[in-house]
Design brief:
alpha+beta; Rossmann fold; Dna Ligase, domain 1; D-amino Acid Aminotransferase, Chain A, domain 1; 3 domains; five-stranded parallel beta sheet; 22 strands; 37% helix; binds adenosine-5'-diphosphate; binds magnesium ion
């Protein structure tokens, strides 16, 4: 039984997991789950520290504590925790944490170390999927040996190709190459970038699917061999291969395609004996064919949209699965209702190259009303530390129809106040106004090819110009 859980993470996802524990905490219902937070000095005033039942400091370095698997597992043992939830990012896809947990008899809320290792390596994952009969994006035969090998394999695949980091994540370590010259220019640069970012220099090639739709399927798999899916998410609204807006279900799929992709994802998960929550990511080309891209062996940032359309709490399910329980329902019991859309609200300035905008939140109002959900780690007076990701809140909106969803999302973004830092909220309002998006026709190139969005992010707004002018006037007046 899991009755005390350590959360090896911070920010909104730590708060999200604490909430699940709190709701499982009525003893007569679930046996109770006590939550334990960890934090570093930069996070002394963080919301997850305030909200957890217990919180322990991991020292002065802002980041190191969150990455120290041995120390975290020791702490779990010392404080009487029976499980660790890794959230996303940090150690969530590090097989070592899962392995140490297994050795110390702590339940890891996720798949086994073996599965994490196998699926975390993108060329290994491709191999497993080919074996299982799941269509994968055409690409190189494993990792590349050197530039000559890359050039030769790219020739066979056909340009444009994608040069990708084998252990990459978060949209980094991916470069499109349109010609042999392009590949020559990028090869060493990408290797040096990815070795710094991921501590691993392995790269491989994939055919570039031109302007694809990103479709991914949420999976739940228990330890008794039951695997179901919670339908798909459309994550095509991206900037630099990073997701900005995620939608469930995809408004771009037919019912037939929806059923097919769900079945493919279940097949993929079964093929690797997957356990716990996971996501199988696919790209869909212009002909409507699906190709496996990668599997994320953890809870994803955008899990909220699947929760909103199915009414299933994925985090609670993760904890139940990790404690050995059987899924309480079959595929045909999972019903889908309406549409949901999530906005990653980042503390970034969309009018200034999306530059991070860290600092104190002077005023905060999160929207409410029908169909609105916020998952955030901020409050008025909170100082966003510069050491972490710039995502500080997620706004998830649900509505019965696509049209109503767009209207409601616009209203909710307008209602949100987050003063003191620049945010991506006004940029999302521009996306909602753009006609291609409203008519549910978009691919991964959307925000980088639509003139109104390019123009928006290249023009300082009137308020900024006014403030800059006022500063000049003040400076000239010698005040
Ligand atoms: P999702 O797949 O859930 O949509 P992202 O790809 O945006 O989420 O990743 C979620 C978080 O995890 C981000 O903070 C990202 O920077 C981080 N992350 C993901 N993969 C890696 C990785 N391989 N190495 C380091 N950080 C990662
Ligand atoms: P990460 O691990 O960083 O999430 P992915 O392999 O999932 O990396 O790719 C992230 C994004 O990069 C995709 O959603 C897509 O927009 C783009 N991308 C990756 N591979 C390809 C490809 N072969 N063709 C076209 N776009 C791709
Ligand atoms: Mg991905």
């Amino acid at each position: 039984m899991i009755n005390k859980l350590l959360i090896a993470n911070r920010g909104e996802i730590a708060v999200r997991i604490i909430r699940a524990c709190a709701e499982m905490g009525i003893r007569s219902l679930e046996g109770g789950v006590r939550s334990v937070a960890i934090y570093t000095d930069a996070d002394r005033c963080a919301l997850h520290v305030k909200k957890a039942d217990e919180a322990y400091s991991l020292g002065p370095d802002p980041v190191a504590g969150y990455l120290n698997a041995h120390r975290i597992v020791n702490l779990a043992v010392e404080t009487g925790c029976t499980a660790i939830h890794p959230g996303y990012g940090f150690l969530s896809e590090n097989p070592q944490l899962a392995e140490i947990c297994a050795q110390r008899r702590i339940r890891f809320v996720g798949p086994s170390a073996d599965v994490i290792r196998r699926m975390g390596d993108k060329t290994e994952a491709r191999r497993s999927m080919i074996e299982a009969g799941v269509p994968v994006i055409p690409g190189s035969n494993g990792n590349l040996d050197n530039l000559e090998d890359a050039l030769q394999q790219a020739q066979q695949i056909g340009y444009p190709v994608m040069l990708k980091a084998t252990t990459g994540g978060g949209g980094r370590g991916i470069r499109r190459c349109d010609s042999a010259d392009d590949l020559k220019r990028n090869y060493d640069r990408v290797i040096s970038e990815v070795s710094k970012a991921f501590g691993n220099a392995d790269v491989f090639l994939e055919k570039c699917i031109v302007n694809p739709v990103h479709i991914e399927v949420q999976i739940l798999a228990d330890s008794h061999g039951n695997v179901i899916h919670l339908f798909e998410r459309d994550c095509s609204i991206q900037r630099r291969n990073q997701k900005l807006i995620e939608i469930a279900p995809s408004p771009q799929l037919s019912g037939e395609q929806r059923q097919m992709i769900g079945e493919l994802a279940v097949k993929a998960a079964k093929a690797v004996n997957y356990e716990n929550a996971g996501t199988v990511e696919f790209l869909m080309d212009a002909e409507g064919s699906f190709y496996f891209m990668e599997m994320n062996t953890r809870l994803q940032v955008e899990h909220t949209v699947s929760e909103e359309i199915t009414g299933i709490d994925i985090v609670k399910e993760q904890i139940r699965i990790a404690s050995g329980k059987t899924l309480g329902y079959r595929q045909e019991d999972v019903k889908r209702r309406g549409f949901a859309m999530q906005f990653r609200i980042n503390a970034e300035d969309p009018k200034n190259g999306f530059l991070p905008s860290f600092g104190r939140i002077t005023r905060y109002y999160s929207p409410g009303g029908p169909g609105i959900r916020t998952d955030s780690a901020i409050y008025a007076g909170y100082e966003i530390p510069p050491n972490f990701d710039s995502m500080c809140a997620k706004l998830t909106v649900w509505a019965g129809t696509w049209e109503e969803l767009i209207q409601r999302a616009f209203r909710a973004l307008k209602d949100t106040r987050m003063d003191g830092v620049k945010t991506t909220i006004p940029y999302y309002q521009e996306i909602l106004k753009s006609s291609g998006f409203r008519s549910a026709r978009f691919d991964t190139s959307y925000v980088e090819t639509h003139p109104e969005l390019i123009e928006y992010s290249s023009k300082p707004n009137r308020h900024d110009v006014a403030v800059a002018l006022a500063a000049v006037v003040v400076a000239h007046a010698g005040l």
